[in-house]
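Q: Got a minute? One more chain.
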Amino acid sequence: MTTVYLYGGTGKYSGTGAFEWSSPKVGNTHRFILFVAHDGAEAQQETAMRELASFGFTELQVGQGKPIAVEVLNEPQMQAFQKHYEGALAEGSSIVWYP
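A: Always. Here it is, folded:
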C-alpha cells in the first residue's frame, strides 16, 4: 500500500536540481515540507534525502518522516497541501518551501 510521508526540515538551495521547478533563490537556506510516496508502513529517510537532492537542496537537516493523515487535508486551512499530496502520489514527491 502506498503511503505519503511528510519530512520537515531546512536546506540550502544549490540551483543544481535534476529538473526545472518554481525554486527558491540559489544560495538561500529555506524551511520545507517534503511529501514522499512510499510503499510500506515505515518512513524511508534515505529516499527523502535523495528526493531533496533532486530538488537541488544541500546542507540538509531533516526530521523523521511521518505519515500524513489524509482526512486532515479536508480541513479549510490544510487544503493548500492537497495538491502536494496528490503530486507525491502521481510523481513520487512534492515539496513546499518557505521563504
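A: The longest helix spans residues 45-55.
Q: Perfect, thanks.
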